[in-house]
Amino acid sequence: MKEAGAGALGQIVTIAPVLTLGLLAYAPLGAMAVQVGMPAAFVASAVGGAIFAKVCGRGMPTAGPSSACAVILAALVAQLAADPQLSLANPAHVAQIVAVVSVCGMLMGLLQMGFGLLRLGTLAKFVPQPVLAGFMNGVAVLMLLAQVPMLLGIAAAHAPVWQRWAQIEPATALIGLGTVAIVWLVAWRRPSAPAVLIAMVLGSLAYAGLDWLAPDWPLGPQVGALPQTLTLPLAWQAFADGSVVDLLWRHSRTVLLDALVLAIIASLDSILSGRSIDQKLAARHEPNRQLLAHGLANVAVGLFGGVPLVYGRARALAVLRAGGRSWRAALVGPLLLIPLLLWGGPVVDAIARIPLAVLAGIMATVAIGLMDGWTHQLVRQWLAGDRARELRASLAVVAVVCAVTLWLGFIEGVAAGVMLSMLLFITAMKRSLLRAQHSGAARPSRRVYPLAQEQVLGALRWQIVVLELEGALFFGSADRLAIEVERLAAAHRFLVLDLKRVTMIDASGAVQLEHLAARLGRRGVALWLASVSPDNRHGQALRAFGTYRAELRDDWFADADHATEAAELQLLAQAGQPIAHRVAALEESVLVHGLSAAQLALVRTRLRPQWLAAGEYLFREGDEGHGLYVLIEGSITVLSQAPSPEGLPQRFVSFSPSMMLGEMAMLDGRGRTADARADVTSLVYGLSKADLAALGHADSGLTAQLYRNMALHLAERLRVASAAWRAA
């Protein structure tokens, strides 16, 4: 019942403004405009509104005539009325004009159905919010301006309103502006009351009172009597004497062009308006289904001589304010209008007595209410002193779209807004992708090197630089990135681009990267990509665009840490200190520093050799720490069992030959804190806790030196970790 009540109330409070659009569409007919336009708008709201609500069936599917379509139809009616073979004094000729306008509406509906079948409605999803807001504001202003002559009692003329202020009728203006004041006052004092309905009643009573007290005062016309029937103008005219066919043929080019323009404008208007209502409902509707429903409704409306339909923003808002939330509420209102149209009664008689100035006042408040709320918020932020670049850009787009819509029209306004939004987007995205940069010296890799190699790297790591990128690598930003990278290449030998935070790569970005790598390579500078692999989205995108096609890549790395390590290994190899295939002597290990030859020989008797295949685990997280290990050959990496956000194992540290590991768990007895896995075939010497105790019984000084060496090793690793944390 709540949905039905909300739907009925929403229809009642908006039917009067809708009727004025029929007058606007048929205004060139002069005195016949009321007799033709009012029923046309009534039929559109009743028949078309019911069909649209039922077929669309989602969100708040309300439909009714619009000012934009009414203006376009008025131009068509004006051309038909100017046909020398017709006379507006002849009712039959007026019926022919209505029939041709109906054909135009039906063609419009067929085109909209085609748009829906081609799924063109989906494109409207990509209209930016500032464009949508500017469009809504432009429509609202146009609706408001269209009411000014009727609101102030100014006679219709081709001259602009501001050139006809002397024609204002004070009594008519009093009624119209008084209606506006009543709507706002009731809405302010009693938000739950039907302000529009109350204003319509009070405005009509004021008109009647002034007309009785001062019959000589010009108060403007009333709606007048409405024909209470559903007609089929096509059937009555086209197949009766063929006169409609002749008229249609003479103006076929204009009719076809107007039908196309109406279909485009109405479709765009409806989809954007539906999106704005969706934001209030926190819901989503299917735009292509909406276009199919609109097209079917407009074909039916054309058969009955109605004016074309678009999404009914005003009625949707009225139904929402009354508590409606579904398509059922939207269907109730049109179903109530059909019996009124067929059988009339007191309601139709009351509508006939509504003053046009009252309708104009109500329509003015509806237009103001349709102003975009998001724009209001932006303006409030501006007035409060907010001058953020994003705020200024959004307000600029809103203003341009609104201004162009008022000046040139709906399609031009939306087109200008989309182009401006694209320009601002490209400008914003053309900013530097460089989020941060650091050298290999400030943030070395997590591989631990023997002292000799570490000393060599200490003087060479400045040749490595890692660039962290953030944002979209596309045609608008790729060129600037190339300029920045080439500038840095003059002072470094290894450039690592970390793409971890890059949101997307387009074809231009992919080609630019590959060309940049080739140019730097000819200069002896390596350009490597981090956070890229053949299986992740960046690697797949690069190859999909025809770049980086080689299957085996030595310039792609899982992360910046592994890329930095690869650069360090190359630097060591070039300096004559290669790590690969190196076999360390036990004497190089920090574990045996400071031992005498006899003590070293004693330690050798307690060490247990253990070979590990590539990928084999030396120990796992949580295992008991029975002893420590000295890496003699190969490489071992300590890993966390918890994967990184990219789904890869997280590397804590990698050990090179002669390094010691596993001593912490042996010392504190609390178990292994991570996994240790061989990267390649590796050889370790193990020293168990029991063997360490046996060495202590044989030589207490030996044991003290071993523990001292372990402490120094842990202290050095802690220093390295602290430096890495500070750099991060």
Provide the number of structural domains: 3
Task: Say how many strands there are.
Answer: 16
Q: What is the distance, rounded to the nearest whole angstrom, between the alpha carbons of the first and last residues?
A: 62 Å
- Approximate shape: elongated
Explain this structure.
The chain is an alpha/beta fold and 728 residues long. The strands form four sheets. It has a five-stranded mixed β-sheet, with helices on both faces. It has a five-stranded mixed β-sheet with strand order 4-13-12-15-10, with no helix packed on it. Strands 9-16-11-14 form a four-stranded antiparallel β-sheet. Helix 2 (33-56) packs antiparallel against helix 13, helix 4 (91-117) crosses helix 9 (243-250) and helix 6 (170-189) packs across helix 15 (356-369). The chain is elongated and about 130 Å long.
Q: What's the structural blueprint in terms of helices and strands?
A:
Elements: H1 2-25, H2 33-56, E1 63-64, H3 67-81, H4 91-117, H5 129-152, H6 170-189, H7 195-213, H8 233-238, H9 243-250, H10 252-281, H11 287-303, E2 310-311, H12 313-321, H13 327-343, H14 346-352, H15 356-369, H16 373-383, H17 389-407, H18 410-429, E3 434-439, E4 447-448, H19 451-458, E5 464-473, H20 478-489, E6 494-505, H21 507-522, E7 526-530, H22 537-544, E8 556-557, H23 560-574, H24 597-604, E9 608-612, E10 617-619, E11 627-633, E12 636-643, E13 649-655, E14 660-661, H25 663-668, E15 675-678, E16 682-688, H26 689-698, H27 700-727
Parallel strand pairs: 4-13, 5-6, 6-7, 7-8
Antiparallel strand pairs: 1-2, 3-5, 9-16, 10-15, 11-14, 11-16, 12-13, 12-15
Helix pairs in contact: 1-2, 1-3, 1-7, 1-12, 1-13, 1-15, 2-11, 2-13, 3-4, 3-10, 4-9, 4-10, 4-11, 5-15, 5-17, 5-18, 6-7, 6-15, 10-11, 16-17, 17-18, 20-21, 26-27
